[in-house]
Structure formats: C-alpha cells, structure tokens
Amino acid sequence: MSVDNLKNALPSYAKDIKLNLGSVTGTSQLSEQQLWGTVLSTALATRSAQVIAEISAEAGDYLSAEAFEAAKAAAAIMAMNNVYYRSTHLIGDETYATLPAKLRMSVIAKPGVDKADFELWCLAVSAINGCGRCLESHEKVLRESGFSRELVQEALRIAAVVNATAATLEAEKALTTA
C-alpha cells in the first residue's frame, strides 16, 4: 500500500497527475508531519476508498499515532465546517456571519499536535471541499504563525493532486463497470 501503487494505478492519460503525485510527496519543503498529515487529511476528504487505503498505509509510516488521529480529525471537522461556512457565505446575507455557529469544534483549539500543522491540514481539506471562508481563515492563522505563502501553496498543491488522483481513479472504476 503506497503512493507508488496509486501512481501505477493511474491511466496513461493522467500522466501529469502521476508525475505531480510523485513530486508533491517526494520533494516537499514541509516537515514530514506537515506533509503526511496534509496528504492523509486530503485523502480522507476525497472519500475515495482506494486513495484512503493506499495513503493511510504509507502515512502510518511517517506520522505518530497522535498526528494520524489529528489528520483524521482535520478531515472530519472540516467536513462539517466547510458545509456550514460555505453555505452561510453563499447565501449572500452577511448577517449569518454574525450569528454564532452553535457547532462544537473544540478539536481546532486542542488538536493533539502543533496547532499550525493542524491548521495546514484544515486549509488543505477546505480547498478540496471548496470553502472560501475557511480557506481565508486558516490561511490567515498560518501566515500569522510564520508560514510562508510558498508553504501554504504547497499544501494547496497537495490537495489538488490528491483530489485529482481520487477523481481519476474513481472515474476509471466507473468506466470499467459501465
């Protein structure tokens, strides 16, 4: 189980995705925990069983048990928050932004790992889930924590490539069963 298995499973027309998957996981400026937490949390956000299985197996080699759980928590909490905050934003009535969310999200305050790492994972998941308000919020916290724009961009690149990998493999699966 590995990123290499995913690369090998990608069809020839997705050569760019295959090369990008190798690049984002092999030449990162992020710490090992930041990288593999981002890769794992975004894999979970794709909901692709194949991508989750392959990436979680490899991520387990690089992440502590606490970091592994925190990456899962980032995907879980953002599955809720991204729907809520994206919806209140898209309604177009800014009054909703002033109302308390009344949603429990204490894991963001105490994720069990470095808070900035958790914020990075939340940002990457928010990119997959398409929540502009969450992207803005997490990017601001990361920049205030000392992350460069290049490191933020790297997390976004990881999210894009992991998502494209999942989309391509799921499409191929559907095409072969059609």
Automatic annotation (TrEMBL):
Enzyme Commission identifier(s): 1.11.1.28
Carboxymuconolactone decarboxylase-like domain sequence ranges: 97-175
Catalytic reaction equation(s): N(6)-[(R)-dihydrolipoyl]-L-lysyl-[lipoyl-carrier protein] + a hydroperoxide = N(6)-[(R)-lipoyl]-L-lysyl-[lipoyl-carrier protein] + an alcohol + H2O
Disulphide bridges, residue numbers: C131-C134
Keyword line: Antioxidant, Disulfide bond, Oxidoreductase, Peroxidase, Redox-active center
Active-site residue numbers: C131, C134
HAMAP family registered for this protein in UniProt: AhpD
Similarity section: Belongs to the AhpD family.
Function field: Antioxidant protein with alkyl hydroperoxidase activity. Required for the reduction of the AhpC active site cysteine residues and for the regeneration of the AhpC enzyme activity.
PANTHER family linked to this entry: ALKYL HYDROPEROXIDE REDUCTASE AHPD (PTHR33930)
Subunit field text: Homotrimer.
Name the UniProt record assigns to this protein: Alkyl hydroperoxide reductase AhpD
Source organism of this protein record: Actinocorallia aurantiaca
Species classification: Bacteria, Bacillati, Actinomycetota, Actinomycetes, Streptosporangiales
